[in-house]
């Protein structure tokens, strides 16, 4: 069973989507470790170390995601999580921006996949299964 | 019916408390110096003689129960993976079992850390790491290091269950004494310390007290059933929860100021009291104990004064005493060198009171949870780490200085909220009780056989 960490990063308290993501991932057979809302990068990383997770799905709904996700890849590497998959999704930037640009920026930051507002979680699950089988 | 004799082999004194089982009363108590170096029974006999002389009508002794913190108590090292998670869970398991934990290691044990373990005076090692199904590489690495080091102390393995079989094979057919028990953190942030605590107590009873020369006492006293701090925690829990139809006191805190350490015990969930507060970090134990090795009246007086500046020290010093001594570090050194010193001048008394105030304030500050403000687009939210103890109803003081001080409740006032540390979740409006008869540990022992009577006596004698 693949273990994945999910949570809402930063000073963000959007709890509903977080629960839905947990539900869908479980249906797909993942071992979901949900660290909930108001989670820091450190919370994600500590949880991934103890549970030996293979991926982290970072949610952000309040627009400050870019700031909160800065150096997350570097921090993972610093903590010894060399090959962990990093996904991010939600309203991850301030205002309305061209998603292609946003995607590129987050990929440059080390995220493996980036999802725009209103994405289906099922799509992320399929991607995750594909990436994990590589 | 007769008398149930409760014995506490302490580091300095062997304390006896006699309970009349028929009349359901406290008969009295007596103490004598603990005699670990020669024969521990000598001190016990001396105290018993004193007790019998003072209470000639004492009914025949029909039962004896004993606890011990003699010869340094129970010393443990805790090892985990992430400092805030499994290493912390392992530490809490040790503390809850009444141990002193001077060494906590996280991640992969290094050669340097093994060296520290080798030279440290440790009775048991608790090895944790990984949630069930989580990381097992680290705990296996650490198990290998411990096997190579061959420290000659029992190892309790309480980590990821997936690693249990590998570690079992690793340790089999060696002279290592090891026990594999339930994971102290089976799921992320979920604390599960009962199994580990149980085995710690068992090793303590079977092995540790023997090495410390206390086992001999068992011929006279029957089995020594637990470390003294655990007995205090048991009594606190009983007093909070109640027993059958006898009501308990609800959420409470016990402060035990000793010569070497200050222990704080709290019984209660400590969960957030307001909607906008979100709990962070590892789950807190319902019965929580913390021990401060640098806060104590004698052995630790030195370490204690090094924590505060002269200015801060004065804040704790009763200003009615003009004799405030700027060389307070020298004075602390004197107390450190003469651990059996009892204050005989009013200045020395005021000095002891200041130390007790610092012990209380600092130990509570480290025990209680705290909140941190997060500014979100939906308004202010708060993170809570640790226990919210603002609604604790009773604070109970025990330990020499509080028992003998005329204004012990004044010292206990230090537990309350501080204007300069508003984010600490300290008790706001509690009632103070003092363990005048020094019965907390004894009642923890009595509670193993007769919880009803122990609860009645606690409620009667804590005033």
Verbal overview:
The complex is a heterodimer of chains A (about 130) and B (about 475). Chain A is an alpha/beta fold and about 130 residues long. Chain A has a single domain (about 5-90, about 100-130), classed as Cobalamin-binding domain (Rossmann fold), CATH 3.40.50. Chain A has six helices and five strands. Chain A has helices at about 15-25, 40-50, 65-70, 70-80, 100-110, 120-130; strands spanning about 5-10, 30-35, 55-60, 85-90, 115. Chain A has a five-stranded parallel β-sheet, sandwiched between helices. In chain A, helix 1 links the parallel strand 1 (about 5-10) and strand 2 (about 30-35). Chain A is globular and about 40 Å long. The mean pLDDT of chain A is about 95. With about 475 residues, chain B is of the alpha/beta class. Chain B folds into three domains: about 5-70 and about 215-240 and about 440-460, ATPase, nucleotide binding domain (Nucleotidyltransferase, domain 5, 2-Layer Sandwich); about 75-210, Succinyl-CoA synthetase domains (Rossmann fold, 3-Layer(aba) Sandwich), CATH 3.40.50; about 245-435, no CATH class. In chain B, strands 3-2-1-4-10 form a five-stranded mixed β-sheet. In chain B, strand 13 (about 250-255) and strand 14 form a beta hairpin. In chain B, helix 4 packs parallel to helix 5 and helix 15 (about 440-450) runs antiparallel to helix 16 (about 450-460). The radius of gyration of chain B is 23 Å and the shape is globular. The model of chain B has no long low-confidence stretch (mean pLDDT about 90). The interface of A and B includes residues 11, 37 and 62 of A.
């Amino acid at each position: 069973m693949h273990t994945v960490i999910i949570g809402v990063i930063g000073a963000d308290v959007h709890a509903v989507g977080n629960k839905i993501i947990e539900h869908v991932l479980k249906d797909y057979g993942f071992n979901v470790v949900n660290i909930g809302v108001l989670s820091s990068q450190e919370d994600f990383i500590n949880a991934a170390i103890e549970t030996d997770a293979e991926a982290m799905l970072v949610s952000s709904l309040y627009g400050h995601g870019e700031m909160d996700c800065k150096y997350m890849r570097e921090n993972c590497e610093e903590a010894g999580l060399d090959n962990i998959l990093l996904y991010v999704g939600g309203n991850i930037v301030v205002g309305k921006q061209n998603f292609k640009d946003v995607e590129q920026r987050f990929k440059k930051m080390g995220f493996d996949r980036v999802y725009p507002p209103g994405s289906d979680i099922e799509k992320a699950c399929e991607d995750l299964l594909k990436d994990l089988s590589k | 019916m007769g008398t149930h004799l409760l014995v506490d082999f302490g580091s300095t004194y062997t304390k006896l408390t006699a309970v009349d089982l028929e009349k359901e009363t406290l008969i009295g108590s007596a103490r004598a110096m603990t005699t670990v170096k020669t024969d521990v029974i000598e001190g016990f006999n001396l105290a018993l003689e004193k007790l019998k002389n003072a209470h000639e009508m004492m009914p025949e002794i029909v039962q004896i129960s004993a606890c011990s913190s003699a010869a340094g108590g129970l010393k443990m090292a805790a090892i985990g993976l992430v400092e805030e998670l499994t290493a912390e869970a392992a530490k809490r398991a040790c503390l809850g079992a009444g141990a002193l934990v001077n060494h906590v290691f996280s991640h992969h044990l290094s050669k340097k850390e093994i060296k520290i373990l080798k030279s440290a005076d440790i009775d048991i090692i608790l090895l944790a790491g990984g949630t069930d199904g989580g990381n097992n590489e680290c705990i296996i690495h650490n198990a290998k290091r411990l096997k190579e080091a061959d420290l000659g102390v029992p190892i309790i393995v309480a980590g990821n269950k997936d690693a249990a079989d590998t570690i079992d094979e690793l340790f089999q057919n060696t002279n290592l004494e090891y026990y594999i028990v339930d994971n102290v953190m089976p799921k992320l942030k979920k604390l599960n310390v009962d199994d580990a605590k149980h085995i710690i107590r068992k090793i303590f009873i079977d092995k540790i007290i023997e090495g410390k020369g206390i086992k001999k006492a068992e011929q006279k006293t029957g089995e020594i059933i637990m470390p003294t701090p655990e007995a205090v925690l048991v009594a606190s829990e009983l007093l909070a929860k109640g027993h059958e139809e006898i009501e308990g006191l609800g959420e409470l805190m016990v402060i035990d100021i000793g010569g070497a350490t200050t222990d704080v015990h709290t019984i209660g969930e400590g969960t957030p009291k307001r909607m906008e507060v979100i709990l962070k970090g590892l789950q807190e134990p319902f019965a929580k104990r913390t021990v401060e090795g640098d806060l104590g009246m004698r052995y630790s007086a030195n370490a204690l004064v090094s924590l505060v500046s002269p200015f801060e020290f004065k804040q704790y010093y009763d200003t009615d005493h003009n004799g405030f001594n700027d060389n307070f570090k020298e004075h602390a050194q004197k107390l450190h060198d003469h651990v059996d010193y009892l204050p005989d001048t009013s200045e020395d008394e005021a000095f002891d009171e200041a130390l007790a105030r610092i012990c209380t304030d600092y130990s509570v500050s480290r025990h209680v949870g705290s909140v941190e403000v997060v500014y979100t687009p939906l308004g202010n939210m708060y993170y809570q780490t640790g226990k919210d103890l603002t609604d604790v109803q009773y604070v109970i003081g025990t330990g020499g200085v509080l028992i003998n001080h005329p204004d012990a409740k004044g010292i206990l006032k230090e537990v309350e909220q501080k204007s300069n540390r508003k984010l600490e979740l300290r008790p706001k409006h509690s009632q103070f009780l003092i363990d005048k008869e020094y019965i907390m540990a004894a009642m923890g022992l009595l509670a193993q056989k007769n919880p009803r009577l122990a609860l009645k006596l606690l409620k009667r004698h804590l005033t």
